[in-house]
Automatic annotation (TrEMBL):
Pathway: Cofactor biosynthesis; (R)-pantothenate biosynthesis; (R)-pantoate from 3-methyl-2-oxobutanoate: step 2/2. Residues 3-147 form the Ketopantoate reductase N-terminal domain. It comes from Ureibacillus aquaedulcis. Keywords: NADP, Oxidoreductase, Pantothenate biosynthesis. This is 2-dehydropantoate 2-reductase.
């Protein structure tokens, strides 16, 4: 099966590297000509958890290659960049399977209005950090959860062929629950790492941020008792520890003066709580601080 990964950032390059270990028909679609040229000429590099580096020969292009219908398209751009991507996907063959890997909740309703008959969503619980246009760091082992919204599992089952024990994939039932659970996890890590400009591991090493995580846990437990019953405090701690060296995707945006995904992650969780009459003053404060920081880039 051909695989096209759209978006050669942290997640796109990391996923493409793992897929290239058992499939030699992976294409990385980039936004910039320069990046495609570097990837084609020099290949893709993955810096592994054990300090080694693996290199991969990879096809890269700024255009979609002519896509046969047995191609899987993996969309690894940020939520904010999806608007442009939807237009392209809209014009593709409706039988082509699509897998969306964004954090947050907003893309779920949007993506399912596309004409494609096979659509799945992924929840990445690993860390990925782009070093440059051809180099990505694997910053923490974690599962890639996949939930199919439209069509059958079969086209997405190719992930199970991965021979690499560090790239684990698990199929789950409901995209909505899976994405909400991931958004809850991101509420603990992404805003705090962005405000404090620290890597994920610091949140559990520093006594002050550790207390903040505990208090936030209590607050979210009251607002979402059913959903939070599936997430233990240990799960949050483990995610911070497993991805300890990672720069969260939101902090990456802040450091590069890009808009963050605060609305689709934290904003969406706050809205859901408000709908049920719940209030989340701590999370709302973190949300406002990220918004303030996001808007401050040009003025500083
Ligand atoms: N990083 C992480 O550890 C994790 C990230 N995630 C989620 O994964 C998603 C992707 O995040 P991440 O990889 O960190 O983001 P990055 O910003 O690193 O990567 C996004 C990439 O998409 C490219 N892009 C933007 N628009 C287009 C387009 N129209 N066509 C082709 N490429 C395009 C960008 O190109 P350019 O560089 O030219 O702007 C960039 O390389 C996010 O929703 C994030 O929340 C989830 C779990 C972990
Ligand atoms: C898994 C985690 C927390 C890794 O940093 C992430 O989802 C992100 O950075 O957005």
């Amino acid at each position: 099966m051909e695989i096209v990964v759209l978006g050669a950032g942290s997640v796109g390059m990391l996923i493409a590297s793992f897929l290239s270990e058992f499939n030699d028909r992976v294409t990385l679609v980039t936004r910039r000509e320069e990046q495609a040229r570097i990837l084609n000429q020099k290949g893709l590099l993955r810096k592994n958890l054990d300090g080694t580096t693996t290199s991969f020969k990879i096809n890269s292009s700024t255009d979609f290659p002519s896509i046969p219908s047995n191609t899987l398209i993996i969309i690894a751009v940020k939520y904010i960049q999806l608007t442009q991507v939807y237009e392209t996907l809209h014009n593709l063959d409706p039988s082509i399977p699509l897998l969306f890997l964004q954090n947050g909740l907003a893309h779920l309703e949007e993506a399912i209005t596309l004409p494609q008959q096979k659509i799945a969503f992924g929840s990445c619980q690993f860390g990925a950090e782009r070093e440059n246009d051809r180099t990505v760091h694997h910053r923490g082992q974690g599962v890639l959860k996949i939930a199919v919204e439209k069509g059958e599992v079969q086209p997405f089952a190719l992930f199970l062929e991965s021979p690499n024990p560090l790239f684990k994939v698990e199929f789950v039932e409901s995209p909505e629950s899976m994405l909400f659970e991931k958004a809850l996890l991101n509420c603990f890590i992404n805003p705090l790492t962005s405000i404090l400009e620290v890597t994920n591991g610091v949140l559990v090493e520093n006594p002050g941020t550790y207390r903040l995580l505990k208090n936030l846990y209590k607050e979210l437990m009251v607002a979402f008792p059913k959903e939070m019953a599936r997430i233990s405090f240990d799960d949050i701690e483990n995610l911070c520890r497993r991805t300890a060296a990672n720069t969260s995707s939101m902090l990456g945006d802040i450091l590069n003066f890009r808009p963050t995904e605060i609305e689709t992650i934290v904003g969406a969780v706050l809205k859901k709580a408000a709908k049920n009459g719940g209030r989340l003053p701590m999370l709302e404060t973190l949300y406002l601080l990220v918004l303030a920081k996001e808007g401050s880039g040009e003025k500083m």
